# Entry
Amino acid sequence: MIHSFDALILGGGAAGLMCAIEAGRRGRRVAVLEHADRLGKKILISGGGRCNFTNLHCRPENFLSSNQHFAKSALARYTPQDFIALVEKYGIPYHEKTLGQLFCDRSARDILGMLETECQDAGVSIFLGTKIQQVERPREFAVRSANAEFRAPALVVATGGLSIPKIGATSFGYDLARQFGLAIRDPWPGLVPLTLSAEDCSRYCDLAGVSAEVIASCDGQQFREKMLITHRGLSGPAILQISSYWKKPYPILIDLAPRGEVTAAFRDPATPRNLNTLRPELRKFLPHRVSDRWLDAHAPTSWTNQALTDLEKQIHAWTISPAGTEGYEKAEVTAGGVDTDELSAKTMECRRVPGLFFIGEVVDVTGHLGGFNFQWAWASGAAAGRAL
Ligand SMILES: Cc1cc2nc3c(=O)[nH]c(=O)nc-3n(C[C@H](O)[C@H](O)[C@H](O)COP(=O)(O)OP(=O)(O)OC[C@H]3O[C@@H](n4cnc5c(N)ncnc54)[C@H](O)[C@@H]3O)c2cc1C
# Structure
């Protein structure tokens, strides 16, 4: 059986649904083809089930891409305020958790329900359980699944990245881009916990569950947030953020005491210079167990002014070389993707293949932690939806 539409959208996640809504509202006959048994599974597990759906302070600097300018146009034309207006139209209760991050008060189901209702109102056709076997373009696009064929002059690829394969992530978007001869920036797992070497793990990992505010930095970027010790390494927002910029074998630097100077007390000649005095000083900045464990491994070898200056430096720039990451199984996003040079920044349409669009996470634009990835999904989806 052949189904004909004005546009086919592959993938019923955040970007695909927003694109379908925008195009449907403009009177386009749109179909969303989703291989899972329901839409928006990632929306449902996002933000710990409460969906951090946008960020009030969304700026181009909150995104990684080989082209830092690419995302600007779409982000400017569909802003956090646009999405908030939609959320408020539905009376969905939400709150700012921290740093501009907006979460649902109740559940991520509110956001998915809103998008599903909007799709319905915009007359969007949804095909679930539709595993795409082949895409061809004799004249218009022909998309084949096991038991149907779909045709349209426009095809939007919104199949996301490689993160969390167990809920349906596939390499489909990258494979399709290659089929049409488009360049891909090699993908890597982003917003992902880091693993430590066996030596570092034996030193710290039994402290799993303990967290501290730090500044994590690498590759010219830094994030001041919580770091969490895990059974295999390091996690928490500061580490997830910096992981997107980290590449093996480079180290990351961690400022363990961003609030101040640990060795200040030793400027007083009356302060005895020994570990018994240093321990409580560092404990003012870090949870006691982390502080003591770190000092066991980094105790000064002498107590000269120079040795104390060196120790202070080390505390503010603890250099640690992760063994790796927890990979796509645990990564919140996939960085890299379809090269932005291939796409129009205004419409997300391929320059070399008119009618073919890429939106959302499959594109080489990756947000920081904090609602930025959904904002990119909404903005890029809206950009393409308005161009269909
Ligand atoms: C645990 C977790 C929590 C997160 N929390 C947040 C958060 O709170 N805030 C935030 O901003 N970001 C968050 N993210 C990131 C965010 O979910 C993604 O960046 C966003 O969902 C990307 O949207 P997308 O539409 O491009 O891709 P997706 O949402 O991944 O949607 C892609 C869709 O395509 C379908 N698909 C894949 N292959 C095929 C195929 N071959 N045929 C048909 N369909 C296919 C998939 O089943 C899926 O439904 C989180 C991610 C994870 C993993």
